[in-house]
Amino acid sequence: MGEEEEEEETTVKSSTTVKVSSNQEEEAWNLRKETQIVELSERIMNGDLKTQIEAARDIRKLVRKSSAKTRTKLAAAGVIQPLIFMLLSPNYDARHASLLALLNLAVRNERNKVKIVTAGAVPPLVELLKLQNGSLRELAAASILTLSAAEPNKPIIAASGAAPLLVQILSSGSVQGKVDAVTVLHNLSSCAENIHPIVDGKAVSPLINLLKECKKYSKFAEKATALLEILSNSEEGRIAITDSDGGILTLVETVEDGSLISTEHAVGALLSLCHSCREKYRELILKEGAIPGLLRLTVEGTPKAQDRARTLLDLLRDTPQEKQLSSSVLERIVYDIATRVDGSDKAAETAKRLLQDMVQRSMELSMNRIQHRASSCTPSSIPSK
């Protein structure tokens, strides 16, 4: 046998040895983990309260470093039900440890999410939302958030009475608590089985305040504007939007600065206001300078946002209905002009550029009018209060 053949045979043997060793180590690790799961389930099911608290903490530590498979095995070993019973304990440590364990068991595991809700976790979690203790309350909100991501859980959570308690967190919770509460409410709002809206007019003011403070193109703004659009479909919600300090202005600013999704929802809310009573809402929307943003939206928004912006622009015009030049007619006129100028091949691009120029010019004129009104004010005409 030549030297090259000997080297090749040695390399193959070495590789085989490494694979065998690796497999043995993996098997040993899996065996230790299986033993650990059995021990944890025994302690959580049959131990005294102190033992259960320690077991719950160990469950959290184990699943944080493990795969979804380990979460599934722990659930199959029967740890979920005793953890839910611990939520009902008057002992703070028991509730805290069980909340964290359940939260980690549910993360990235749809089967466990459904198992936890089926086992009866929602009622005690809702009770925890009523507590004055901010830590437990917001951990409960985070747990409900994780569970609400599973479609089968949404009707159960929606019917549990959690929504009004989550709205309270919008006003008094921490930043993370508010983010979690908005996300839960957004998740639940998509549930097809909801007979009534998941939130009422009481949610409007805190949602408007949060939308004022956040970046209008953020995911958070998208969820908040989606909820505000839903609320704008009721008279209670519409009144709350107009009564909120800067309510309509905040929606107009979102139309101007939001992402594609948040602008679509914001213009939807404004359109809902104007559709419900043009005489009441038209001037309120115009007063906040909505036209430039709406014009830009007819060019740059999603197809739905563009349609909504055109419809709202038509409603905001002061001319009689039969004499109105609709937005769609305006776009056709611009397109015809562009075709004559640059030919049909480049007409769409030219038309878009012309409409963008019109938007820019409209914005400049609006700003000039605002500056003119400001400069023409005399001290006697400025309200003292």
From TrEMBL:
Alphabetical list of InterPro entries matching this protein: ARM-like, ARM-type_fold, ARM_PUB, Armadillo
Which keywords belong to this entry?
Answer: Repeat
- Renumbered to this chain, region (Disordered) spans 1-27
Compositionally biased region (Low complexity): 12-22
Q: Where is the U-box domain?
A: 167-322
Q: Where are the ARM repeats?
A: 78-120, 120-162, 202-246
Question: In the UniProt record, does the keyword Repeat occur?
Answer: yes
Which PANTHER family did the record assign? ARM REPEAT SUPERFAMILY PROTEIN (PTHR46700)
Name-wise, this protein is U-box domain-containing protein
Which source organism?
Salix brachista
